[in-house]
C-alpha cells in the first residue's frame, strides 16, 4: 500500500486531496494546524501540528513516504493577499514551513515531493492587458511578482529545486491558478473571487445589487478542484519536475463571472463597483507546457464548477451560517 503524507491537509485543496488519495487505496497521514472545516478528514491519521516548528516537521516525515504533498501555506484571496496588511506573516510563515520541509525531507531520505506554488509568481508587467496576459512558465524571469505572497512562492520554488540538485529530492512543482469548489473559504476574509461572488449572489435578493471591487474588467481563469487534483497527481507521478501551470485557460472578466453566477442562481442583479484590492489586470493559465509534457490539460467548462460551488455556498447562506467560522 502506498504511504502518502499531505501537509496542509486541513485546508481546501489538501482535504480534497486526502479524499482522492484514500479513494485510490493509499494510506494517508494528514498534518495541519486545524482539521478540515466542513467535513471530517478521510486521512488514516491526522496530526495537529504547527509546521513552522522544525521538530513537528521531522516528526511528520518519520518514514519513507512514497509521496509527500506540501500544500501548507499562509494564504487567501485578494482581500487577504493584496492589501499589504499580512505581508510579513505570509512571507515568514510560508517560508518557514517550506524550509523545514526541504530540510527534513533531505535528512530523512524522502524523495518524491509535490510543492504547490502559485500563478502569483508571474511578473506584474506581463499582466497589465486584461485581454492578453502572459503567464507562460518561462516568463517568470526577470522576476517581479505583484505581491509578497508571489515573491515567497518564487523563493520557495528555487529553494526546493536547490535541494533537488544538492540532496536528490525529486521535486514536482505546480503553479496553481485560482482553484475553487465546495468546502473552500467563503465568508472568512480569505475567500477567492468565485466563492465571494457566489456568497454575494446567494445573499442578494432578485433585482438587488452586489458590490464588486474595481471596474470588474480584470480577467482571471478559475480551475475546479477535481481537475486540479487530476493535474496534481499526474504531475507528481510523472518524470517532469516543472514548474508548470495547473489552471484553466477559460479566461473571464470578473463582471462575466458575476453574470454567470447570477444566471445559475436565476437572479437579475446590478453590479456596484467599489474600491478594493484587485491584483493584476489580467491572468490566465498558459497550458501549452503541461500539454506537451504530460499530455493533459483541464477540459471542464467554468460553469460546471460554478454550479456545484454556488449550490454549496447558497445552502450555507440559506441555513443561516452568516458568521465566518
UniProtKB/TrEMBL annotation:
The keyword NAD applies. Keywords: NAD. Gene3D superfamilies: NAD(P)-binding Rossmann-like Domain, UDP-galactose 4-epimerase, domain 1. Residues 4-247 form the NAD-dependent epimerase/dehydratase domain. InterPro entries: Epimerase_deHydtase, NAD(P)-bd_dom_sf. SUPFAM superfamilies: NAD(P)-binding Rossmann-fold domains. This is NAD-dependent epimerase/dehydratase family protein. It comes from Nisaea acidiphila.
